[in-house]
Write a structure and sequence with these properties.
- GO terms for molecular function: hydrolase activity.
- This is Polysaccharide deacetylase family protein.
- Keywords: Hydrolase.
- One of its GO terms (biological process) is carbohydrate metabolic process.
- InterPro entries: Glyco_hydro/deAcase_b/a-brl (IPR011330), Polysacch_Deacetylase (IPR051398).
- By secondary structure, this protein is α/β, with parallel strands linked by helices.
- The protein folds into 2 domains: about 1-125 and about 205-330, TIM Barrel (Alpha-Beta Barrel); about 130-200.
- The protein has 15 helices and 13 strands.
- The strands form 4 sheets. Strands 9-8-7-2-13 form a 5-stranded parallel sheet. The protein has a 3-stranded parallel sheet with strand order 1-6-5, covered by helices on one side. The chain has a 3-stranded parallel sheet with strand order 10-11-12, with no helix packed on it.
- Strand 7, helix 6 (about 100-110) and strand 8 (about 115-120) form a beta-alpha-beta unit.
- The structure holds zinc ion.
Length: about 350
């Protein structure tokens, strides 16, 4: 990921290359950009995790994509529009945030862009909070408040530290995995922040009703696991459970015809064994490795559009295409799985 971001910093040089030439050289005619969140001014959810685009920046991205690619729907993708006379883009959003309903959907409806939204079945209706958002809220609190001596001592005990330094705690918090999320709950007690109150007051996730309203407007939905674990950190048995059960719940709850699934975080470390075992379920799956080819015909790699700095759609898409062309020359453009 770092190399790609380094490449994006040279966009002044490479953005003079015509997009059509890069698409021709790469032989790619469909791209899969994806986002999570569009910042409309209020952002206490992801501000310490990555830098989301503002409404204006997002609209610019969409207009760039629209100018050079045709927006593809699930139906288009199913019909495998490989004989597309134009280039296509298949847009998706992960994590099922209410931000999509309030900010993103009106923009996409106006621009006539199709989008699929991947939901975590345990989080719909604000039932639970993703552990990374707990990290984000904790960092916000630590940075914005003066902590008491008792709180500092309790935090030092929790992290087994001798010295207290706010930024060190924030770095440690960023490294917390889903298996250590009890640390976040303990910390919330020390800081006296309530995640359940945050869920009730802020309602960060889409409600079931909002999903149905969006479905009526033409948006589609898929699953994004139950609990958003990092698949490389859980067993194949749990990977299957998280995948199959979340797809089933979302299909049933929202009366969906197709089975779509995007891997939480990424599909890094997901082996052929997993894909062989879900074959019979006929689930179309999506990763987030950027422009890369897959041997599995029902699995597509998507292009992340959010980083720690803001890059325009042109910079990201052209950078991904250049990176892909280089990888192709080195024969490293295909995902290798055990
Ligand atoms: Zn996610």
């Amino acid at each position: 990921m770092h190399f790609k971001e380094d490449l994006f910093k040279f966009s002044i040089i490479y953005n003079i290359i015509p997009l059509k030439l890069l698409l021709k050289l790469s032989k790619k005619n469909i791209i899969f950009p994806f986002y999570h969140f569009v910042n409309d001014g209020e952002n206490s959810l992801v501000n310490n995790l990555y830098k989301p685009k503002t409404k204006e920046q997002f609209i610019k991205d969409i207009q760039y994509l629209k100018k050079h690619f045709t927006s593809l729907s699930v139906k288009d993708l199913k019909q495998e529009k490989s004989n597309l006379d134009n280039f296509g883009f298949f847009l998706s959003f992960d994590d099922g945030l209410a931000n999509f309903y309030k900010i993103v959907a009106p923009i996409l409806l106006k621009e006539k862009i199709f989008c699929i939204n991947f939901l975590n079945s345990n989080f719909i209706d604000n039932k639970q909070l993703f552990y990374r958002y707990k990290v984000n809220l904790s960092i916000n609190y630590i940075r914005e408040n003066t902590l008491s001596i008792d709180q500092i001592e309790a935090i030092n005990d929790l992290f087994d530290l001798d010295f207290f330094n706010k930024e060190d705690i924030c770095t440690l918090l960023r490294k917390v995995s889903i298996n250590e999320s009890n640390i976040l709950d303990k910390l919330s007690k020390i800081l006296k922040i309530s995640f359940s109150e945050f869920l009730i007051n802020k309602k960060p996730y889409l409600s079931g009703l909002q999903v149905l309203k969006l479905k009526e407007k033409g948006f589609d939905f898929g699953a994004h696991s139950k609990n958003h674990p990092r698949y490389s950190q859980i067993s194949v048995k749990d990977q299957l459970l998280e995948t199959v059960e979340s797809v089933e719940v979302i299909k049933t709850q929202f009366n969906l015809d197709d089975s779509f699934f995007s891997f939480p975080f990424s599909d890094d470390g997901v082996k052929n064994d997993f894909f062989n075992k879900i074959k019979s379920k006929k689930i179309t799956t999506f990763g987030s490795a950027g422009l890369k080819d897959e041997d599995i015909s029902s699995h597509f790699q998507r292009i992340p559009m959010e980083y720690n700095s803001i890059y325009s759609a042109e910079t990201i898409i052209k950078g991904e295409l250049i990176f892909y062309i280089i990888k192709k020359i080195l024969n490293k453009h295909k995902i290798q799985r055990d």
